[in-house]
Automatic annotation (TrEMBL):
<protein>
    <submittedName>
        <fullName>Uncharacterized protein</fullName>
    </submittedName>
</protein>
């Protein structure tokens, strides 16, 4: 019960920050991020098979 009360109080205090963060998360282009990660993996010779398989999902 105390946990729920503290969570509710926290969210009331941080409401504006939470809204901004949600807005920014919605604007992130996942495909662009995956391309950047794959490119960096190739530059550093890191296996990126999992990421390449993930790209086919999108």
């Amino acid at each position: 019960m105390l946990r729920k009360l503290l969570d509710a109080l926290y969210f009331k205090i941080k409401r504006n920050e939470i809204k901004k963060a949600r807005y920014r998360l919605r604007k992130i282009n996942i495909e662009a991020i995956l391309r950047l990660i794959i490119r960096n993996c190739e530059e550093k010779d890191i296996k990126n098979e999992i990421l390449e398989k993930g790209m086919t999902i999108f």
